[in-house]
Sequence to fold (361 residues):
Amino acid sequence: MKTLKLILLALCAVLAASCYKEQGDRFFKLTNKSGMEVTVTNYGGRITSIVVPGRDGIARDVVLGFDKVEDYYPENNQSDFGAAIGRYANRINQGRFTLDGVTYDLPKNNFGHCLHGGPTGWQYQPYKVVEADARHIKLRMDSPDGDNNFPGAVTAFVTYTLTDDNRIDIAYEAVSTAPTIINMTNHSYFNLAGNPAEHSICDDILYINASQYTPVDSTYMTTGEILPVAGTPMDFTTPHKIGDHITEFDFVQLKNGNGYDHNWVLDTGGSLDVVAAEVYCEETGIDLKVYTDEPGIQVYTGNFLDGTVTGKYGMVYNQRTGICLETQHYPDSPNKPEWPSVVLRPGETYHSHCIFAFSVK
Fold:
C-alpha cells in the first residue's frame, strides 16, 4: 500500500509538471518515508513549507511563508520567503560593477545598493518546471540579456531533492551567453519551533563554522575587510543562544545590522561533508545542519520583521521569528577582486550546492 501511494504521488507530480503551462504558478509537494514533507512553488523557486517531526513525534512546519501562491506576488507581499535568489544573492555596492572593462549599472533597491538581483530578481519571476515527482523538483530560469541590467542571457536550474534521512539537497547550475556574474542561494526563514507567533529564534542555539566574517557599514554593505570573530558577539564557533548578544549595539556591527545580518567566511574548505552552520531548538528538539560548497554564509535573524506581515495559519511574523542561512559567495564580490570570483563565462557552468539536514536531538 505504501509503495502504491508513493507511485500515485509521483504520477500526480509528473502530471502537474506537464500541465504547468495551463496551471501557471502552483505548489508541488515532496515526501519521504520518514514522514517529512517539503512544498515548493515554481513562482520564485520558493520553498513554502517544511514539515518535520519533532521530539514528541508531532510534525511542524518550520519555515515562514504564505498559504497561497498569489500571496508571494510583490503586489501582495514584498518578501523573499523561501526563494531561489538570482542572479546575484545579497548586495552589490551602489548597484554597479565592472566586468572586462565594461561598467554595468543595476537597479538600486536597498539603501542605494542592488539587493538580490534587483526589484524583479528571480524570486519575483516564475521558474519553469522541468521535472517533478514525489522526491524532487527541477526548475529552470531563462533570464534574458539585460535582465535587471545584468549582461548575458542566462539559463539556470535549481533542483530540490528530499532524501529519506530528512535532507533537502539543493543543487544550482547556470550557463551564460556572455560574461556575467552569478551568486544563487535559498532564502528560507526557519523557525524550528514551528510557532513563529510565540517563539523567537533568539532562544535557539546557533553554531557557525567560521573564524572570520565580513563587516558592513550602516547601509549593510561589506567594507572589504575580513575580521576575526574571536572576542566579539560574532563568535559562534562555540554554540550558544542567538539572543545572547544580539542587542549589544555598543558593538558597531550589531548596530549596523540591527542584529545579525552578516556574511561569515566559512572554515569548511568547500566540503559538503563538514557542517557549515547548525541551529537547534530546545523546545522541539529539531536540529538543522547546513552543508555547502560555498565559501560564505549570510546569517540573517529576521531583524526587519515587524508584525505587519501575516503568514501561514494566520500567524503574525514579529521581529526575529525566523533565521535565514544563505549559502553564498561574499556580498559585493564583483567589486572586490581579492575575494572568490563570481564571474561566469560562456562555455563554463556555474555550480553551487547546499544541504539542509534535519534531525531530532
Helices lie at 2-18, 20-23, 252-257. The chain has two domains: 2-188+344-360, 193-335. Residues 193-335 form a domain with the Beta-galactosidase; Chain A, domain 5 fold (CATH 2.70.98.10). The mean pLDDT is 93.
